[in-house]
């Protein structure tokens, strides 16, 4: 009964969203009509009878982006995640969605001040010498410029009042819609609608607690400081709470400002290279990366350095995913398609019943036409069409844990290409990938890992076998091996190996 009432409560929301899509000709756009089966073309033609004036403006991705922008934070986030599937929807469509911004009128400054005081539990005057009007407002929060008592200028992010309830209702509608799509459209199951919706929902819930964003910003700033590719502002921890985040002010102007790219001193090819290398270094070296690197979140300071802001979406990769990513990139860089195929099977990205050699052959068909060529010389539409055909042929499915990585890679490459139309992503990636491979997959690193495992084994052996419980029978002296003697022998061997491994790796 509860599930039925939930569906009924979200039905008006879904119907309204569907009507908006129909009016914009974004549900079954005319541009894809020739690709549809006959029955679907008839349905699309009927829907198009209800289309409004906005249906005649822009590409399908642009029209969809405008509808999602009006629908609110969950719809915007959904569009941003859909932009990760360029392999399915095409490069132009994905790029149009990747540029989604949710700029809304700000709520009043007195309301924001009250929210800050309530969240921090103290008067505004005890933290800030001044608190100014909003400098930018989105669907979840808005940002105010302020000055601390010590004179430092800061940015204060404040969640919109009541936004949590709106997001919860929208997430419920998205979940219901995903279930409906999965049940009535078998072809869409490869996109994993339910898993996709769950990923969007989790990302939004994390964005609604600004303490998580503060921690992510701090962690990323530490990671960025180890390379010179990108930097980030410091967190002001005294100004952090669940609904408030305070960061040092990021000097410079956003890449979304057209005047920035016209600066005569701006080294655009270097910026494009730094962006790609910063992202790869974060993901592979540290397993944590800024997952929303669009032009609005990338500033260029007076010295021409790149500064990242807005850490609401942080992606993470485990050790296994980091190795798979590095080996896949390294394999493509070296045109070792057999190894790239093997990694896909080891990671479980391709079902085991498929032929590895055939998959390697398919990867060669993707890699060879683009290797060593600039982005300006590569037909992304042709490439993505080929990729989609291959992934469908080998039953590759959406990996929810890699959604943020895919989304960010698409966004980063798009920004880099706009900075430098002749940009070669492979040449930019090579030094970072080589560094990771040399460090993590070299014989010395493998020996180091064995040494760590040996020391752990020694620790377990030194602890001895667990004592028998009261109910357990006493071990027989004639039937059981001498565990203490065996443990001593293994311990000596393990300790010797660990010592040698440690000495070799000094």
Q: Would you kindly provide a written description of the structure presented here, covering whatever features stand out?
A:
This protein is α+β, with helices and mostly antiparallel strands and 506 residues long. Among the domains are: 2-102, no CATH class; 251-441, no CATH class; 453-466 and 479-504, no CATH class. Helices cover 56% and strands 9% of the residues. It is built from 20 helices and nine strands. Strand 2 (141-148) and strand 3 form a beta hairpin. Helix 13 runs antiparallel to helix 14 (337-347) and helix 14 crosses helix 15. The longest helix has 22 residues, at 2-23. The radius of gyration is 27 Å and the shape is globular.
Q: How far apart are the termini? A: 66 Å
Q: Topology as H/E string?
A: HHHHHHHEEEHHHEEHHEEEEHHHHHHHH
Give the strand tally.
9
Catalogue the unreliable spans. Answer: 469-506
Largest sheet: 4 strands, antiparallel
- The mean pLDDT is 78
Provide a count of the helices. 20
Strand content: 5-15%
Helix content estimate: 55-70%
Shape: globular
Neighbour order of strands in the largest sheet: 1-2-3-4
Rg from Cα: 27 Å
Short account of what is shown:
With 506 residues, this protein is an alpha+beta fold. It is built from 20 helices and nine strands.
Key attributes of the depicted protein:
alpha+beta; globular; four-stranded antiparallel β-sheet; 506 residues; three-stranded antiparallel β-sheet
Describe the SSE topology.
Layout: H1 2-23, H2 38-48, H3 60-71, H4 73-82, H5 86-89, H6 91-98, H7 109-120, E1 128-137, E2 141-148, E3 153-159, H8 163-184, H9 193-207, H10 210-224, E4 244-248, E5 253-254, H11 258-261, H12 268-286, E6 288-290, E7 298-300, E8 306-308, E9 314-316, H13 319-333, H14 337-347, H15 356-367, H16 380-393, H17 403-419, H18 425-440, H19 443-463, H20 483-504
Antiparallel strand pairs: 1-2, 2-3, 3-4, 5-7, 6-9, 7-8
Helix pairs in contact: 1-8, 3-4, 3-6, 4-9, 8-9, 12-17, 12-18, 13-14, 13-18, 14-15, 15-16, 19-20
């Amino acid at each position: 009964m509860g599930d039925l009432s939930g569906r009924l409560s979200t039905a008006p929301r879904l119907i309204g969203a569907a009507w908006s899509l129909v009016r914009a000709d974004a549900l079954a756009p005319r541009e894809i009509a020739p690709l549809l089966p006959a029955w679907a073309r008839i349905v699309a033609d009927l829907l198009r009878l209800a289309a409004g004036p906005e249906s005649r403006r822009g590409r399908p991705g642009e029209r969809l982006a405008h509808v999602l922008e009006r629908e609110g934070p969950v719809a915007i986030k959904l569009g941003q995640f859909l932009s990760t599937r360029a392999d399915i929807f095409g490069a132009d469509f994905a790029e149009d969605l990747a540029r989604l911004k949710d700029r809304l009128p700000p709520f009043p400054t007195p309301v924001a001040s009250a929210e800050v005081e309530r969240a921090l539990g103290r008067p505004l005057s005890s933290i800030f010498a001044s608190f100014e009007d909003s400098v930018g407002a989105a669907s979840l929060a808005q940002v105010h410029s302020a000055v601390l008592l010590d004179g430092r200028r800061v940015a204060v992010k404040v969640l919109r009042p009541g936004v949590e309830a709106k997001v919860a209702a929208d997430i419920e509608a998205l979940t219901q819609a995903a279930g409906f799509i999965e049940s009535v459209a078998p072809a869409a199951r490869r996109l994993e609608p339910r898993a996709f919706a769950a990923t969007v929902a989790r990302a939004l819930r994390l964005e609604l607690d600004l303490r998580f964003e503060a921690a992510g910003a701090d962690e990323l700033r530490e990671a960025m400081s180890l390379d010179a590719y990108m930097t980030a502002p410091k967190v002001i921890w005294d100004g952090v709470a669940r609904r408030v985040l305070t960061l040092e002010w990021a000097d410079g102007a956003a890449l979304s400002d057209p005047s920035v790219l016209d600066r005569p001193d701006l080294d655009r090819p270097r910026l494009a290279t730094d962006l790609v290398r910063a992202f790869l270094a974060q993901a592979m070296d540290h397993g944590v990366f800024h997952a929303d690197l669009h032009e609005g979140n990338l500033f260029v300071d007076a010295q021409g350095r790149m500064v990242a802001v807005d850490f609401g979406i942080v992606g993470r990769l485990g050790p296994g995913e980091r190795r798979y990513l590095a080996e896949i990139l390294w394999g493509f860089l070296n045109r070792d398609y057999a190894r790239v195929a093997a990694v896909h099977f080891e990671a479980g990205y391709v079902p085991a019943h498929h032929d590895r050699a055939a998959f390697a052959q398919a990867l060669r068909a993707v890699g060879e036409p683009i290797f060593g060529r600039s982005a300006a010389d590569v037909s992304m539409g042709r490439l993505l069409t080929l990729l989609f055909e291959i992934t469908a042929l080998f039953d590759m499915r959406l990996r929810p844990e890699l959604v943020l990585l895919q989304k960010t890679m698409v966004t980063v490459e798009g920004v880099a290409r706009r900075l430098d139309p002749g940009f070669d992503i492979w040449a930019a990636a090579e030094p970072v990938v080589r560094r990771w491979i040399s460090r993590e997959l070299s014989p010395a690193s493998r020996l180091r890992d064995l040494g760590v495992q040996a020391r752990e084994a020694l620790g377990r052996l030194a602890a001895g076998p667990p004592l028998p419980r009261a109910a357990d029978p006493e071990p027989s002296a004639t039937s059981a091996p001498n565990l203490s003697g065996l443990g001593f022998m293994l311990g000596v061997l393990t300790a010797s190996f660990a010592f040698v491994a440690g000495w070799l790796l000094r």
